[in-house]
Amino acid sequence: MKPIATLPKTAVLLAATLFVTGCDPMLSLQGSFWPAWIVCIMAGLAASMLLMWQLVRLRLAPHLGPPLLVAPSLWALCTFSIWLLFYSR
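Above: the chain sequence. Below: its structure as tokens.
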């Protein structure tokens, strides 16, 4: 087996790119590549708006506390849950 110093540079670069590809998942949305964390933030925003709408509809929102604290916390909870659900290894 050859030591790493004698391997061609292209082989070393190819091996490095294979190991680095798992660091930041990219999604293709209509031909444009987006980092997965941006997609999770947008999906978390939609999910938190839906949940907040349900809490208001069920008349539970006044019992939760200040909306300026509850709404961003719900957004963060939804975003992190989506990230863990789809991108945890």
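The longest helix spans residues 36-57.
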